[in-house]
Automatic annotation (TrEMBL):
This is Protein-disulfide isomerase. It comes from the Bacteria. Keywords: Disulfide bond, Isomerase, Membrane, Oxidoreductase, Redox-active center, Signal, Transmembrane, Transmembrane helix. The keyword Oxidoreductase applies. The lineage of its organism: Bacteria, Bacillati, Actinomycetota, Actinomycetes, Propionibacteriales. Gene3D superfamilies: Glutaredoxin (3.40.30.10). GO terms for molecular function: isomerase activity; oxidoreductase activity. Residues 68-232 form the Thioredoxin-like fold domain. Belongs to the thioredoxin family. DsbA subfamily. It comes from Kribbella shirazensis. Pfam families: Thioredoxin_4 (PF13462).
Amino acid sequence: MSKSKAPVNPLLQQQKRRISPGIVVVIVLVLALGAGVAVQYYRGHSKVEVSSNGRPEPAVITGPGTAGKGVTVGKSGAKVNIDVYLDFRCPHCAEFEEKTGATVDKLVEDGTATLTYWPLQFVNPGASPRLANAFAAAAANGKAVSFVGELYGDFSKSWTTDQLIELGKQLGVGDAKFQQAVQDNTYASWLESVGKAADERGVNSTPTVFVNGKQLPEDEHTAEGLQKAVDAIAS
């Protein structure tokens, strides 16, 4: 005996058809916007947690403030100098730091090489200058290497002014002078001179690396490539 189908309420069928594709698109956009806002809030408010304490912090040979000169760290008299042109909002610079940081630390610590940072500020005009200025303030207090490691170590963070000041405190350089330098963009004119010097040298991208004045090819931006270039001079 066959069963007959229950009668369908025509009003219910009409209600199902009322959710148009346009409404679905709006809902998706609203959800995406909400997720984006949440991500931006996290980037700007996430907790600063220093991981580089204990990393060797070499002496600063040339600090920030000398027009047209980068920040040089290490031991005076080293046979090799490594120039690194970087931007703190450059993801490839973060990759370079991750790949070569330990090798550079060793070369600088054992006196084989000195390291010169040339902070540029063109990748993100809204953030790069602020981060470069904070780096200079940290370098002036002897924390150049650690500061670089922390900024790149948490690249997803916005590094707001408050987060930079907190980072300075955790690195032991967050006194009133450091905070004022961060808030007042104290090293702006020096950073402009560094950018001009980079232009004159033909540097137009980051990271750009020189070993004793010879540019390191991009495909050698690795620990092995850098070590090989240094060994060719130091040995």
